[in-house]
Amino acid sequence: MASLEDRISKPDNGQTEGQDTESSTGMNVNAASFVPGGPFSWADETAEAETNSEPSAVNAKAEKEMSDMSKAQTDGASEGLGGSSGIYDTSYEVNVKLSDLQANPDDPLFSIKSFEELGLDENVLKGIYQMRFTKPSKIQEKALPLLLRNPPTNMIGQSQSGTGKTAAFVLNMLSRLDYSPNMINTPQALVLAPSRELARQILGVIQIMGAFVQGLTSGVAIPTEVANRNRDGLKVQIVVGTPGTTMDMIRRRQLVADQIKVLVLDEADNMLDQQGLGDQCIRVKQLLPKTIQVVLFSATFPNHVVEYASRFAPNANQITLKHEELTVEGIKQLYLDCPTETDKFDALVHLYGLMTIGSSIIFVRTRKTALEIERRMNDENHTVACLTGEFEGAQRDIIIDSFRSGQTKVLITTNVLSRGIDVQTVSLVVNYDLPDDGHGKADPQTYLHRIGRTGRFGRVGVSISLICGNRSYQMIKEISDYFGVDMTSLPHDDWDKVEETIKKVIKSSRAGSNFQANNATANGTNDISM
Ligand SMILES: Nc1ncnc2c1ncn2[C@@H]1O[C@H](COP(=O)(O)OP(=O)(O)OP(=O)(O)O)[C@@H](O)[C@H]1O
Question: Record keywords: Heme included (predicted)?
């Protein structure tokens, strides 16, 4: 098998990728937009990427979602785990930069070892137990004391995919709300997320984690058909929304923002780095009280976003990682040589014929390719579903819910679902097309988020990138160099060898498991069998 270096000198086969990409990475935010209190008028709004912007308070549907998600979480938690995530490893360094805390090096915040020691309300702890969390992950252990400290301080927090950032910011919000009866309908915390699927998922976590908190109310601000007609607005304590819809709702006073004291941006680098989303996030922030605690979380904060992030969340405590520390050990990264684009599809069909896979996600570059692969996989008698940004909200909800529940096992999608989605049974991620930055270069951040849909919280996962032509060899090389990882090569013409190699990498990660299975039986069998 040729090495990556060897393959890069191969002539390009001339194939070009489609242009109908949903990836907007690589678009820098206009620095002028970040001037706090700078000139701003509604007339200069960027085009609203979302349609049918509407509020959606907690309702019967959300209740059902919550119970489905609760079940999925519990099911996932009780399934076997294997592999090493590094979550409890001390081998990687989490670099905590404490702004004002640095004045007091003896601050006991660093010695927090359990959820109980954080001083969380007992009803919040009950929610944690309900989720079967027994021990915080490193990011939770490091971030929570800083987040919970008074007076509230801003935070920029980074940790590997699937390491529990959601719980860190949710626990902070639950601990900061005023639950007095007269505040039950008052929005007090706001989370912005880049996709409706992620917003709904975060709402689910809030509702499970806050299940024992008396009087907690929460809801989503995402585009839906019902909400446009909802003139009463969103009168809940925690709102999770996509930036455009949330901005519209605040502007129309459907969401009263005067009492909001915490603003969280999940996938913050992505939101701040995209022209439309970034502008909307800034506008939302400008509509909130000046004293809010701003919390930014992501697995990635590329250098060019860090400066913007620091201006968005001034004087923030920062928890950062070096990019060599970002990959999750439990995710085994493979790539497969394909001489032509046609061979990519054949390879995909072979792969699915070869393995019994728990759940898997196939990432493609364009909506058109997604539909095409869906059709062709169906023709090959593989049951697959497809979700892209062009689908209506209600349709997207049905598709993702079906995938979450395990009814649909294979999801073909674009970058719209590359970030944040947490489905613990996903054992395989296929990069049918490698993510690029729109200028022909690899997009390592998106690659990392995509493969991070597997290997969640210590689980074993496999990612397979399909490579074709000189350009994509160059891209996979850029990605492996950026993260400092070795990727295992798979041949396209020897399926016995492919099978053997995949078995070997899964076995090696299980054998090397040092995962402390605090919420699961560590039998390592939920994933791929061959
Ligand atoms: N302390 C814990 N103990 C056990 N499981 C946990 C703990 N914290 C979080 N989890 C589980 O880990 C999984 C990943 O968590 P989460 O989605 O918050 O990761 P993340 O860091 O936000 O990942 P990403 O960067 O991909 O968005 C979830 O299924 C969550 O329930």
Answer: no
Q: What single DSSP character describes residue 423?
A: -
Which residue has the CA at smallest separation from atom 1 of ligand 1?
Answer: 136
Report pLDDT digits (tens) over 379-403. Answer: 988 889 999 999 999 999 999 999 9
Q: Identify the CA nearest to 357 among candidates 463, 497, 468, 434.
A: 463
Report pLDDT digits (tens) over 11-52. Answer: 333 332 233 333 333 222 222 222 222 222 222 222 223 323
* Cβ–ligand 1 contact at 154 (below 6 Å): no
Highest mean pLDDT among 36-40, 197-201, 220-224 belongs to: 197-201
CATH, range 327-529:
3.40.50.300
Binding site membership of 187 for ligand 1 (Cβ less than 6 Å): no
Question: Are 54-325 and 327-529 the same fold in CATH?
Answer: yes
Query: Domain locations in the chain?
Result: 54-325, 327-529
Could you tell me the distance, in angstroms and rounded to a whole number, from the CA of residue 495 to the centre of ligand 1? 34
The DSSP annotation for 72-101 comes to HHHHHHHS---S--SSS-SSSPPEEE-TGG
Distance CA 452, CA 461 (A): 9
CA R_g for the chain: 22
Order of strands across the sheet that contains 359-363: 385-387, 410-413, 359-363, 426-431, 461-467, 331-337, 488-490
Say how far apart CA 415 and CA 24 lie, in whole Å: 9
For ligand 1, say whether the CB of 136 is within 6 Å of any of its atoms: yes
CATH code assigned to 54-325: 3.40.50.300
Ligand 1, atom 2, lies closest to the CA of 133
